[in-house]
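Protocol step 6 of 9: fold each sequence in the batch and record its structure tokens directly after the sequence line. For illustration, a two-sequence batch is reproduced in full.

Sequence one:
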Amino acid sequence: MNRIHIVGIGFKPLEKEVEELLLRLSVIFCFSGTLKIFEKYAIYSRVKSKLKVCRGVSQLIEELKDVLKYTSAGVLASGDPLYFGIAEKIIKTFGREKVRIYPDLSSLQKACALIGENWTEFFSLSLHGRAFEKEEFFQQLVIHKKLALLTDAKNTPAKIAEELFKSSFKDVEMWVCEKLGTEEERIFHGTPESFKNKKFSVPNIVLLLLRNKEKISFGLKEEEIFHQGGMITKDEIRAVVIHRLRLPETGVLWDIGAGSGSVGLECAKIFPRLFVFSVEKNRSLCQLLQKNKEFLKTFNLKVVEGEAPAILKELPDPHRVFVGGSGGKLREILHYLITLKTLKVLVLTAVSPDTLFKSLNILENAGFYTEVSQISVNRLQKAGSKRIFKALNPVFVVQAERKSDF
């Protein structure tokens, strides 16, 4: 069988068997950048007549298709060809059985060795030739704490640094590693602020390390969440609601009538891979919710301005739903929610018995198993020289579970 042999170069000498392979092959493809690297290898003079430089990936694939009809071919790639390299495209096109890979070090391994960090702890993202999805990037940083970023001419280290600086990621260390494996190799270390206006040579790889202080995922206080006039799900109620939601680590949560967003925000912090959609019809509250999202760095939460149930049809189907407010449309909202087959657990809060029994009738008639708790909270406060307990308004917490296996 004619095969494609992909050889990684750039950091370490070629193994004897790889040199012998290159000498046997009749044609070896490469790109112009890879050729410059390969010219420094001792074997270059012996195989340069076989080298064919391709202008891009499409030309390489077409050339390989032609050559494979009569012989095997080589492809030179930088570093580890499977680390966001050409190998993935070639395997997808020709199949695994026709491809052999001889890797060098990856740029991540080399960069981490230079700065003294464990490369296995870094989560890699490629921004090369891709749109920069800011919130997705921020959320990956929040989740993993250590990111390795492959850049390009548009998504530069300076752009990354500027976005981090604008979003108040003050505890981020940043390394930019230029032209690894060449005589022009350089390492820069600093903060996003120090790099946001600086130009760097290509190619480069960016390493980010988020050094968080104590991180609170569960137990946010009311005063840590921006809200208006005390209109917020109180801490004790929020704790019960989140417990009743029985949240999965991944999936979709709808927070309907989100207000300032305390429930959705805390759920998003607890499970950063959970997608939270906070639905609120009041524009000023949506703006407040967006402020909370950015302040708490819950980029897995999306603020949705609109009125339920109409706006809900535009969202991904949920696995969990919390209804904190209904704007007088509780009946319509519940009748829509019970039709959603993905919905396993629904939790709502009510302050009046009328709202409680109205919701129970709808949910139980739809085949949901319900449990109700009335939460009465008394907080100790100072009253002059004495201390007294002051009662908060009691709240009914309704949990509805679909009668099926999870």
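Sequence two, same batch, same settings:
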Amino acid sequence: MKKDPMPSVHNNAAGSEKKMEPQPVTDHPSYKATGKLRHKIVLITGGDSGIGRAAALLLAKEGAKIAIIYLNEHADARDTGALIEKYGSECLLLPGDISNESFCKTAVKRTVEAFGRIDILINNAAEQHQEKSILDIETDKLIRTFEVNIFAMFYLVKAALPHMKENSVIINTTSVTAYEGNAQLIDYSATKGAIVAFTRSLSQSLAKQKIRVNGVAPGPIWTPLITSSDHHMTASEHGKDTPLGRAGQPVEIAPCYLFLACEDSSYMTGQVLHPNGGTIING
């Protein structure tokens, strides 16, 4: 496992999977791979835990080499990297803050130095802060949420594109909140709506280059984002209002990323998949 020697940061907003009870389900040990991503290179943000970890593990099983950008959850990242190597692939760990454009450029550079190119860019990391009213949203947290959730996607796409060839793929994680809103996550929901528009616009911009751009809009999923963002919600409470009556597990969302990353989705671009427990959003 390769660990990039970049300086770590000290913002704990992303949360740690190790501290969650119960632990999220991020792996399916009995999964039978078919080599759909053999020799592909993946760069994923937030790949140390939650949905990002589940997606990274599944793509690694299918043959991809994985570079993981994460904030400072080193134990989670090492665990994910060890599992990727257990499944016969390679992993590069890149700690740092994606709200910083310089770091994004450096992370892309390190990935290309290690693996030669980028075939699949997954913009997955996010931050949220629950507030009862828009009057309670502090300006610094508002700016931080937009920097992490949407500005970073611009930074990473701009840095990665020169290293992406025809038939490469970009996948952006948005949210059900982009479509149905959330009274206590106004700024977060706004960034997720921006990601939908970004995905659609970028897909049109890159279509002639034969680079596909799609998104995934998860509903309530049991991840560190929930327990680290002032929700104070238990696993049994989270997602109980969905038609399926429960939160999803990261391992249930990962196949969306595999589908969009491989040739199975070769005739899809500018689209968003909705693994959300049955909520109809007509989006």
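Proceed to step 7 once all outputs are recorded. Observation for sequence two: Helices lie at 50-61, 74-86, 101-115, 139-160, 177-180, 186-206, 224-227, 250-261.
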